[in-house]
Structure formats: C-alpha cells, structure tokens
Amino acid sequence: MRTIDWVGGAVEIIDQTALPGEERVLRLHTVGELIAAIQSLAVRGAPALGVAGAFGVALAARIHVDDPVALAVAVQKVETARPTAVNLARGARRAAALIPHGPEAVLAEACAVRDEEIAASDAMARLGADLVAELCGARPRLLTHCNTGALAAVTVGTALGVVGELHRRGRLAGVIASETRPLLQGARLTSWELTRWGIEHRVAVDSAGPFLMARGEVDAVILGADRICANGDVINKIGTYSHALGARRAGIPFVVVAPESTVDHDTVSGAQVEIEDRGSAEVTAWGEAVNPAFDITPFDLVTAIVTDRRVIRVDRGEKP
Question: At 84, is the pLDDT very low, low, confident or very high (cuts 50, 70, 90)?
Fold first, then answer.
C-alpha cells in the first residue's frame, strides 16, 4: 500500500500519529491541512516528506491558479514547514518549477517524485541487503532506529526495506527497534510495520542501544537519514549519534540507508544544518526541556551509506 498518494484531487496519507491503535486515512484538500499534517508528524520520513512537498505545491497550483502572489506564498510555506530534512524543500521546488506550465504539469511532476521514491525503495532494499550480508555474514542481528519503512517512504522503505529484504531471503536472525523520540516512532511505527511483515523483533528503550551492542546482542546498526551532507555527516533522528558511538566501540558496522535525493551537496557539513527542536510540551508538563528532533553523526563514525544508486564506503574514505 502507498502511505501517501494523490487520490481524486486530494492528498491521502496514513495518519502516523494514530498508529498503532488505529489505521486512519486523512484526506488533505488544502495547503494548510497538508502543512498541519507535516508539522504534527502525521506524515514524516525524508522520502515521504519530499512527496508531501511536491503534492503540497500541486494543491497550491490548483487552489491559487489565478493568484500568483498567493501561490508563491503557499509554496514558500510548504518548503519551510519543517527545517531539517532536505527532501521536503526539494520536492516542493521541483514541482514549483512546473508552475508556468499549469496545474496539471505540476501534478504530473509531483507524481513523478512519488514514483521515483517508490523505485528508489526497491533499489535500496536490494543494495542494502547485499551489503549487510557482505559485512555481517549469514543471519545478522540488526538494531534500527526511528521509522524507515513504507510509512516514511511511500512503499517498502529505506533501512527497514533492507530489513524486509533480508527477511525475505531468510538471512535475518532478529531485529531490535529503538523506541525513538519524538512520539516513540520506533515503538509505535517500526514495530507496527515489522509485525505486519511477520518479522520477530524486540523494542528497546533508546538509551539501551549502545549497551546491547557492548553485550554482543547486535551485529550491525542500520538506519535512515533526513540529510546527508557533502562530507558524509548524517543528519537523522535524535539518538542516532549515540548508536553510532556504541557501534564504533563495539566494532560493528553502522550503515545508513537513504535515497540519493537525501544527499545534499550544497551543505558542506552537519554544522550548517538547522536542527529542529520540538519544544517542551512533547516531553514534560512542567518546566523547560531540550527536545531536538535530530542529531548529527560525524562521517568518521559511518561504515557505509546506501542509496538507490550506489554504496558509499565511508570507512574507506569515499564521500557522497
């Protein structure tokens, strides 16, 4: 199933905030509704956000077809709905480039973004499974973080797509899914998807990951990325850096799986990336909290980056 799509003149998404208790589909008819869905994390994940950005511009092009000023404002709002993942703005800008050709051309380009992400997921699953088998041998035990399945990528997924491919090949011994802030995306979403795929797994509290690696319960860490900088720094969900440090100490591979659209050659390093803070309300009902949604993993902690086009062996000095 597609977790985000264009259906009958509106954007349809699976509401990720309702899972796992309820499988609810939202129909988004306006740019404001789409932006609210993005900011509430009803739709999230770098590839899915790229598609959402493109579909948001398609909505705007239809609604403001006779008002170029309002259209430009709407496009800007879509591009900046969340600041850290590069795909959102890229998807929006790609669709916006077709505005001079009319709303149908914009929609066709948005659908092309969707279709390319679907194809990218299939390619990443194959390339990533081959790499993990090469690095870890038969039937590895994997730890994954955040949610990187179909919910984050329209279909199949990025890192979780690799997990699914290894399972289909009979080459997977087990999975540990970190619970993951914000909104426990690993415990709610990754666990839900693994259960649907029939993959046995355990959910671990976020801070347990490095200890489980040190205890020899993990053969490799595999996760996604919201942005990959030109030097190989990885911007991903908060907690990724801790898992990278744990993997380095334990001497196990740390593998990032993300589509080529996530590679940002215009950003030299992670130091240039704005890190979104989700605010105190998601953490505590009293006082102030530090609640970054993402962190920066330096490239020298990364073993390899798998995209839909290539495998980048960062541990051998290769750069995106």
Answer: confident
pLDDT digits (tens, 9 = 90+) for 198-220: 999 999 999 999 999 999 999 99
248 is written with which tokens?
Answer: 């380095």
Structure tokens at 16: 């990720």
308 is catalytic: no
180 close to 187: Cβ distance less than 8 angstroms: yes
Domains of the chain: 4-116 (1.20.120.420), 125-316 (3.40.50.10470)
Whether 1 shows a pLDDT value over 90: the answer reads no
Do residues 5 and 155 touch, judged by C-beta distance below 8 A? Answer: no
Options 5, 226, 233, 308, the catalytic residue: 226
Calculate mean pLDDT across residues 227-242: 97
Read off the pLDDT of residues 32-54 as tens digits, 9 standing for 90 and up. Answer: 999 999 999 999 999 999 999 99
pLDDT at residue 24 tops 80: yes
